[in-house]
Amino acid sequence: MHFFTCCALLLVVVTLPTCFVQAGPIKDQCMAAAGITAQDVANRHETDDPGHSVKCFFRCFLENIGIIADNQIIPGAFDRVLGHIVTAEAVERMEATCNIIKSETTYDESCEFAWQISECYEGVRLSDVKKGRRTRNHRE
């Protein structure tokens, strides 16, 4: 199940030109800052704890695409960043589920917080993608 959720989220992040024009360079910048590779990110669910560097990659990425700031989810960020792609029900579900996650103010905690947010956002399903936004290989 995680594979398909991951594919749906990556489809959203990587292929759409609107809000994510900078997602590729941001991803690369954040991987370099965290000292990890794309393979490290891809392998993140192979263990219970993907490691501090992978978690900090997600902090960098989510901050730079405008989802989190100052160890908090920016109100309305999920809708602003992904609302044009996913259904209103998906936005409501993600905001209700993920916006309750809180963080302490330390750097280490901010990485853990971002990891928890990314895990929560992986709850987006392919069926949440608005009709007409799916690739021809991903139809229901």
Main sheet strand line-up = 1-2
Strand content: under 5%
How far do the termini sit from each other?
Answer: 15 Å
Poorly predicted regions are 1-21, 135-140
Number of domains: 1
CATH architecture: Orthogonal Bundle
Instruction: Please identify the structural class as seen in this structure.
Output: mainly alpha
Q: By CATH's scheme, which homologous superfamily applies?
A: Pheromone/general odorant binding protein domain
Any idea what the radius of gyration is? Answer: 14 Å
CATH fold name: Recoverin, domain 1
Topology as a string of helices (H) and strands (E): HHHHEEHHH
pLDDT average, as an integer? 78
How many beta-strand runs? 2
Q: What portion of residues is helical?
A: 40-55%
What is the approximate shape?
A: globular
- The CATH class label is Mainly Alpha
Pfam family, one: PBP_GOBP
Signal peptide: 1-23
GO molecular function, one term: odorant binding
Keywords: Signal
